[in-house]
Specification:
By secondary structure, the chain is of the alpha/beta class. The chain is built from ten helices and 13 strands. It is globular, with a radius of gyration of 19 Å.
């Protein structure tokens, strides 16, 4: 088995800003696993928040692929630490198995059918209240809008987005930027501003402040939740978990985490990094069982992979057999 690993940069339309900073492009790593005449492909996004870089993830992928053999069980990949590198290897192996067996990945995973067309929430990046309102007006037909905030004048920003898209549910994502005091003060005001969910308001090491907090909307764990080892940290503290393949370390672990979350009574959000449709295709297999779908990464780019079928204007995701997971 031969592995080809390459870095790619995909410009983001208008840029993208969250609490941790701004980006002009999605920096991704693409893995191709060649086995005879078959090729399995996958994409991952290294994330500095978790100590990852393009170089470190590339090295990790190349190291594990040196040990892979055609007969290697996919479960062996779970010995790698969860993260972007394992995601690329795991999803490339799923794609390769689909090619070898002549069965699409949805069938290999035991799903009843292929991913159906599904709407994704749309994202408004951190900016001034006026600019965020204008961005929301352009997305006013969206059913759900994710509002990125940074711990500054966030109530004004949220109110502006609500005014710009009054019929949309809002998911406020602070990316760990709020303090416990801000959360306690702002939480009672959020339902009147159209907010349905607050995502990762506090730094992950300050989660204990959620224990006694009376909440008016569900609180979703993102940076606090990675893989199955995270359930002990979120159970009884959060109402929802955000499953991202670059955190779980691939589709195999994400499927397990989705099932475990349902057993524990936790709601599910399926999320993504800013990426192309090659990274989104595996996540679409989780979308049907999620309460919230946040997979608009490719819709934020200037362009996408050849063969992508998503409807950017309508915010509708359509799986493409030309990109990943099919014969």
């Amino acid at each position: 088995m031969r592995a080809l690993v390459q870095a790619e940069s995909w410009p983001i339309r208008g840029g993208f800003r969250i609490a941790r900073g701004a980006r002009a492009a999605a920096e991704v790593i693409v893995l191709e696993l060649h086995d005879g005449g078959w090729v399995g492909r996958a994409e991952c996004v290294p994330y500095a928040r978790y100590g990852e870089s393009m170089d470190s993830v590339r090295f990790e992928i190349e190291t594990i692929c040196e040990r892979l053999r055609p007969s290697s069980p996919r479960e062996a990949v779970l010995e790698m630490p969860a993260g972007a590198a394992r995601n690329a290897v795991d999803c490339a192996l799923w794609d390769l198995e689909a090619k070898r067996t002549g069965k699409p990945v949805w069938e290999l995973t035991g799903l009843r059918g292929p991913p159906t067309d599904i709407g994704t929430m749309r994202t408004v990046s951190v900016d001034t209240a006026e600019k965020m309102k204008a961005a929301a007006q352009r997305l006013a037909s969206a059913h759900v809008i994710k509002v990125k905030v940074d711990g500054g004048a966030d109530l004004d920003r949220i109110a502006a987005v609500h005014a710009g898209a009054p019929n949309a549910e809002l998911v406020v994502d602070a990316n760990e930027a709020w303090s416990a005091e801000q959360l306690a003060q702002w939480l009672p005001m959020l339902p009147k501003l159209g907010v349905a969910v607050v995502e990762q308001p506090l730094p992950s090491d300050h989660d204990a402040a959620l224990d006694e907090l009376e909440r008016t909307v569900p609180i979703c764990a993102d940076e606090t939740f990675h893989d199955r080892s995270s359930f002990s940290s979120v159970e009884g503290r959060y109402d929802m978990v955000n499953l991202k393949l670059d955190k779980t370390g691939g589709l195999t672990e994400a499927l397990f985490c989705a099932a475990q979350a349902r057993r524990l009574g936790l709601q599910i959000m399926v999320g993504c990094m800013v990426s192309t449709s090659l990274a989104i295709e595996p996540a679409l297999l989780l979308a049907a069982g999620a309460q919230y779908v946040d997979l608009d990464g490719p819709l934020l780019l200037d362009s996408d992979r050849e063969g992508a079928l998503h409807d950017r204007e309508a915010g509708v995701l359509r799986s493409s057999s030309a990109i990943w997971g099919a014969v």
